[in-house]
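Exam revision sheet. Question 4 asks you to relate a sequence to its structure. Input first:
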Amino acid sequence: MRRLIVGVAVLVMAAAGIVLYGANGATEPVRTAPAGCSIARPLPAGTTTQQIVSGGHTRTYLLHVPPGYDGNSRAPVVMMFHGLGGDPQTVVDATDLDERADADGTILVVPLGRGEPAEWKFRKPAGDPGSDLTFVNDLVRHVQQTGCTDPSRLFAAGFSNGSALTLALACDGTTKFAAYAAVSGPFYEARCDDAPPASIIYFHGMSDTTVPFGGAETVIGKLPPVNDTMSKWATRGRCPSADAFTTADDSVHHFAWRSCKGGTDVDIYAVVGGVHGWPGGGPMSPGRTSQTEDSPVDATSLLWNFFQRHPARTVPAGG
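Answer key, structure tokens:
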């Protein structure tokens, strides 16, 4: 059974004193429905395996279309990236993202990395033929051209190697995602200093030995300490210290920055005693068992709610 962070309110430490905020630390924006597509764009119902050609390579992705999709109303899109050695179906089974997508009328896209084991090349910017940021850009363009999607509600999520890719996408900014959710894979480089504003929610187990919380050399290269990384994202987002808050108990430390540049937010959930895995989810790789299923944090629910609160402020015109 998944469990949510428990708490009716959180204490916000501000320069003027201590202020009480609601449980999620933010209010949900009022949205008007975007105009529908001028020409219907039907998609296959349910979960199917699709392919595109990107960079001269045939790439595979899992496409999950919610039952309420009609091809005329613009649907949100969540793109999810597996970890090293993972695969799309295992990730969907572990996270229950398809159930959330069905409930909210969201299209779920889960691509497969390259190689054996399957991995993501995230250190080179979009435009480099060896970078998976280029592939993601191609895939987003393909999904937006073939489906009736809402460009203001395009979101990226990832685990481990896929988490690093997700944050690299935020750093690059070529593909216009509205918000990002990353689990167990920190990433920040000097070139991220010039990245556009980004809303980011991040999760990491403090006892993770695969990708240590304090940073280390890993199987996908050197990864930085979590606290340093997310502080840099907050600094880059020009997040005011007066709108930062921390809540902590014996199981979870929640750090949040509000009112950042462009109306963005940054959140971190550090799970005390948590290991490498999806908090509240099943095994993220085939043949593995989950040690995070009984986590006090439900990453799927928290990131989904975060996405709902963070549509893009300005988007390109859709067809």
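Marking note for examiners. Residues 1-27, 315-319 have pLDDT under 50 and may be disordered.
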